[in-house]
Amino acid sequence: MQPPSYPHSSPGYTASSSKESLQNSFVSAQQTLASCSGSGPLPPSAELDSHAQSRDTFASLSVSSEPEAPQKTVHKTPAKSVKTPSIPESPLGLRKEDSETFSERSIPSHLSFTPKAEIFTQNHIMSPIMHLSSATDSHEFLQHTLGPCSVSLVSTEKVLELYGRNAKKIRDPEVQFSYAQILVRNGLTIKPDDAAETKKRKEYLLEAHDLLKRSSRGGCVDAQYFLGDSYAVGMFGKSDDSKALSYFEAAGKARHAEGAYRTAVCYRKGWGCSPDSRKVVKFLEIAALNNHPVAMMEYGIYCFKGLMGLPDDIITKRQGISWLKRATEVASELSCGAPYELGMIFLNGFRDIVIQDTKYAIKLFFHAASLGHAKSASLLGKFYEVGKLVEPNADLSIHFYNMAASSGDVDGMMGLCSWYFVGSDNLKQDYDEAFAWALRAAGCGMVKAMLLLQRFYELGIGCEKDLAKARYWADLAKRSAGMNSERKRRTFE
């Protein structure tokens, strides 16, 4: 079996470059999870014994640090299907649930209202009126029903005129909202290449704005949320956080899940208002009760850790664990922290409420990492490096460290730095790469990486020996450590 190749010119190692090697590694991981128990770490294999002395040398150059949280990744959703597509199973048999995208300050590209809460985990986008989700579908439908020459029977302007006439005649808030969506969709697709097109675009958006206001006053909750989102992104001019909050709050009070969540975000960040922790908790609870995955995760964290003014008692903590379990069941890329938080609880156990279960905790970390949670990937990389709870596996350790580092996690960067420093059976020792990853972690503000760079410059490891630069990184590490200590002290007070 040929060993997998690893790039050495720039940070970007991928442990899956050898298909056969990665398959064997995951088989080893599955066997580990099937046999490991919560009683303690398993005996390490002999795979890494040859590198123990080098790793000890590397460890003597560094100090401990704390990980940093990653940023989320949002995937686009298909525009046609109204059914959730089949998602492949993860290596541990955990199913990845798709979820609707919940941005904090951006309007969805499809410009459609947010669907009912019970279908947040469905992977679909469709207007309540427009049963055809694209121009191609419309053409195929017309050709099938009316013949090949029917596509150009009615112009867009004529359709909008007829629709608008009926909407004004009926005066139904839901119909007005649907017509407003069509106007917005057509208005935003117009490219303002000349004065006439610019005028038409402006007319569409102004009419849509008026219809949305009337529909909102008529009690259409989806129109209230849509209007709030439009004010947040400045679709009708400059963005107005105050107006956006008023419409989000109106929708949230009517049990609109996304509207309630956006209201909580505004009160937490102080957008258009003064921060108010009580209202954050109130609207997060409304969103969570209406099955909003991110709200369930955040509300569970607040309850378990006693944040946002919530009581730090057993009843509230038990409630937080329950919400984290519900959030984990429907976890998506945006709520990938839910399996991690629940995994940490099961890893350590909590009184007599949660019995320690390291096997289940490892599964939850795998689940979170598969959704893009960088801290979970970094933690798994550490477990496979030192043989904690699982058998040591260099390839899997490097693989998970690379996943974390690619998402900006500094512990993942330092993990790759350590592996390039000592090397492994399938990874050639490379001091230049070790230096590059340490430099990248130091650029993210990691004190441990700064101290490591000091030693690298003093000894000329991966770089030319330079005592002036070594002093620079030592001073910077000292200042950064002092700033971190002061920040922690203020937070504690």
TrEMBL record:
Keywords: Repeat
Family matches, as Pfam families: Sel1
Membrane found in the keyword field: no
Ranges where the record places region Disordered: 1-108
InterPro entries, A to Z: Chitin_Synth_Reg (IPR051726), Sel1-like (IPR006597), TPR-like_helical_dom_sf (IPR011990)
Feature: compositional bias, Polar residues: 7-38, 55-65
Basic and acidic residues compositional bias, start-end: 94-103
Protein name: Protein SKT5
Organism: Ogataea parapolymorpha (strain ATCC 26012 / BCRC 20466 / JCM 22074 / NRRL Y-7560 / DL-1)
